[in-house]
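Risk register update: the risk that structure generation would not scale has been downgraded. Supporting records follow, first protein first.
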Amino acid sequence: MNPTRASSLLLLATLSLTATLSAQRPVQMPSISEILRDAAQGEQTNPGGGGTRDAEIATPSGRRAAPPTGQAGLPAWLRTGVRVTYYSGSATFAGVRQQLVPGENGAWVDSQGRRYRVEDTANSAGAGYTQWEFAEVRPGRIATNMRNYIFADAGMQAVTRVSSEGIVGDANGLSDIWLPPAALRAKLAANELGVRRGPYELGGRTYDAIVIESKGSSGFLRYTYDLDSGLLLVMSSSSIGASVRTPDGDTSTTGAGSTMIAVAQLRDVRTPDVPWLGQAAPQWVRDGAAFAYAGTYRNSITEGSVAPWRCDARITLGGVASNAAIGTIETRLDYGNGQGQNGRVPCVYGPGAATNLWIDPAALQKLQRGQLLDRDPITGWQLSFAGSDGRYATIVERGTADEQSYTYDLQTGLMVATTSRQQQGPAVITISLELQQQRQ
């Protein structure tokens, strides 16, 4: 990863875990949400959805989501605070060993006088988890934080968080991970090409599943959903990129493009039992409210020889309704030489978020120093209460290579400071931010 790109991502992640790596679909086809849009809008989902088993969702890990609260028009499992985790992986296989790419100083020249250089190609692969935290669920809006974790060791035992962003849906669907059961059944009833129903085994359980597959000249994109809950079970895809020019002796020829395969598989559905789950939003949470933070970016390797970089972040709230807010985080990382990097990502805050822009002070005041609040069974990340001085209280998230603290004002509930530490090879990157100004 490019160091400055990593720096920008970590800065965005520091405030509210809303950094994002640009997602690329392996096949340029409509998403499943687009494919099903007409069916989703043409059907009304009955209370309880498609008849979720025992009003719960069994997961491959054997756990079940907590007892449902129930929301008219939505399946029973789909509620504020639930967390859904997928294993995600992808690999790219080069079609040729070398390719010609434009380059001013390249030794290869075409008939138009344009120069090219020879570039080695390589295979690549990566894997980790994608986790969806449902910060707010109601028929009119489903607001989530999508976080990505990658394996940080060759044994694929420890993960580090690399990105997060706010993603919003509604009763017609959420991205590609959930679609109304009624819409799925409508696709079956229409007997459309690429749509089929059948049993699907995952994690020791057999699901009544629907498979929706799109095929193109360069590959395929396949989604498998649980027909009862509408939840995505598995996504798989394969695609071949555009052909390339490759050296062939003293001339060039057309070579095959790279092949990319990707998969996502459901691993867990649960609701973390944090004390502030379902909390009401403070009165200062309103459209247009803005909060400016400033601080430093430090690299342990250059500590003492290079001055810390300055970093700034600004959270602006919008879409405030039902104790939740949809907003943006704008960041600026200043390298100290007149150059820097800006970032902007969507953010989601709500009563189902484990870490939030605000936390109910009454909930924090009941906690004990060192109290473990949650441990995620898939990522291994822990959330605990670090303590309080009577004016401020701090909670901490910890992973194998990451740690992030959040400090809250016990009068207003507002986050007034946050510090992130992340191991990146031999270096420890530390970003510290404190509240400087607020507009309410």
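Supporting record for the second protein:
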Amino acid sequence: MNEPTIDMMKVKETYERYVEKIRSAGGLKPTHEFHNLTTDEHIIRVAQAAYAMYFSSDLHTIAMLHDIGKFEVHEDGKFPKHAEASAEIARSIGVPEYLCVIIEQHSWIYNIHECGQKSVRKFLRKLTKDGEYDQLRQLSLYIMLQECDKEGFSEVGREQREKDIKVFMEKVNLAIDKDIEKALPPFVRGKAGVGKSKVMEEYYNGQSG
């Protein structure tokens, strides 16, 4: 099955248009302590981090578009449902749905410390559209976006995001391991070393190769 193509010219035009809109509105400085930059500065910093990290039109697209919806929803330094708004803008210019889902879910990681395994598995179903999208690719892009996003944070924000990513990886691995274990024959379930997907290890090995 052929992957949908990304019109990078349209992505860049949309990114530049929204950065200019936000700048013209005064930058829309967030009130949260995790942010020491205006929203336009943050979006630019994240896009730069993506280009420096990895040559991938998928990553560059989600990095450039992940926060542009903040312009549409801003309220006194707060941005309710900005991820959803950003995803809708991405959809409107024809960005493939597997990337729009990542944009739409990128703020979910803020709640990772309170999430149980049921919530994590529900998130994974959304991220992969109930298995329609490749799980390793979706998780890899999601983590890479978080790594880029934190480069646009304050020092305290970057420190917190590092903790978030670590807990996210631990909980995702556990959720995937349990899903794999459920599919195994009863006599091998729970045996040492069985059902260990180590998804994020595969991701890091893949990035370093």
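Residues 32 and 77 are 8 Å apart (CA to CA). On this basis the risk owner (M.S.) recommends closing the item.
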